[in-house]
Amino acid sequence: MKIGVIGPNSTVSVIKQVVERDIPDVEFVYSCWDYYEETDKQAVEFQNDGTIDSILFSGPTNYNYTLRRVAPTVPWGYLPHSRTAALQAFLEAQAVYGSDLKAISADRYSPQLLRGTLEACGIQGTEVYRAPYDPEEPGYVRKLREFHRDCYRRGLVSACFTSMELVRESLLAEGIPCIRTYPAEETIREQVYLLQLRYFSAGENSGKLSVIAIHFDYVFDDEQDLAIREWEKMRYQNAFKERVYALAQRMEAAVFGIEMGFFFIATSRNMLMNVFLKNGEHNKLLQFGRRGPEYQTWVGIGVGSTMLEAKSRAHMALNRAQADHSGTSYLVEDEIQGLEIPEPGAAAPEAGAAYFARRIGVSLETLVHLSQVLERDGDTVTSEELAGRLHITVRSANRIIALLEEAGCVTAVGKRSSGKGRPARVMKIMLPDSLPQNGQKK
To answer: Within 10 Å of residue 330's Cβ, how many Cβ atoms?
Structure first.
């Protein structure tokens, strides 16, 4: 997929940094503009290019006006405002200009969003002066500049907030404190994935759409150390999120996290069958998500002629998976039937242990010995302590730890000093339940 990005150089630089780091499987073409009124012309050029699959604007655009005259040939969208970006701008206003944020002017941000962000920071009763102009109006940038200048010079506000680079440059040159708002990283990612979703929903994909619904949960209440417990929760959330996004990239898919613990991956039916199911991505995800008794993961898959239909069926499949206490995943292709998706090792625990050992590159015998040692002596160790318990070299212990860490089974919980040299890293090792214990070799 190829996306054309349009915006001022400063904002495009932010977008470029995020997408090239987090979404490498999508090709981006960048077009920087100096004047707001030029965005629609560059969008038309992207449309006429013939190789651009969608267009992403850095912010609200006058392209709406152009669409009344030029029929769009590709999906397009823009980066909306977010609380995260507003918070960053507020912090800059306080740190750089000493603003008390009791009265501010803004052009594109809604007063409700700005006040809500400030109230969350403990700042109540802020007066927000909002520019009363529409982006489609002629001379939009000039009017914004005059609006902010007037608010400041009349003493109505202590700082101005704009998403227009030319407005900021002009006001700063006059000595007026003006803060430029930039899109938040999560907003950039979400909008790119939304464009991917619309791309997958195009006519050529009709009837071949699928949505994978994923829900994960965890319980760390048995951990008595509060710091370790909270660290484990945060680490697991981030690790699971990284797995889902990496999976989506391999499937050339769009991913959405509607709330903590829930993800939806939108892709084609071909990718679903050949990559997610046949290539074992489904099993790898569950293996990671269920590596201990504290972790649970459910998967439901829906297929339909439209994205809405596929997502609705994915919800049905996920509900069925959660109601089935065996942990089975389900695939729903119509409103009546649901197909169970088998999981390797479900019938025989030793098969699951052998699969895990083979996947991470450690012998089953070593894993069995490690499981017994951790059960007997505790699961929180340094690499030197682990080497002594397993009767192996520290180098070999570090190799095993690195493989387990890659599989998500190791959590760093602190450091321990022996008085000489650098402090040793203290780790908590959590192995899957499928590994045999108590000296029973399976």
So the answer is: 26
Distance CA 248, CA 107 (A): 36
Whole-structure pTM value: 0.48
Nearest to 196 by CA among 80, 53, 57: 53
Tens digit of pLDDT for each residue in 150-197?
A: 999 999 999 999 888 888 899 999 999 999 888 878 788 878 877 776
Q: Are 120 and 222 in contact (CB under 8 A)?
A: no
User: Phi-psi category of 211—alpha, beta or left, where left has phi over 0 and alpha has psi -120 to 50?
Assistant: beta
Please tell me the distance from the alpha carbon of residue 30 to that of residue 22, in angstroms, as a whole number. Answer: 17
Diameter of the chain measured on Cα atoms: 82
pLDDT tens digits for range 397-420: 888 888 887 777 787 777 877 666
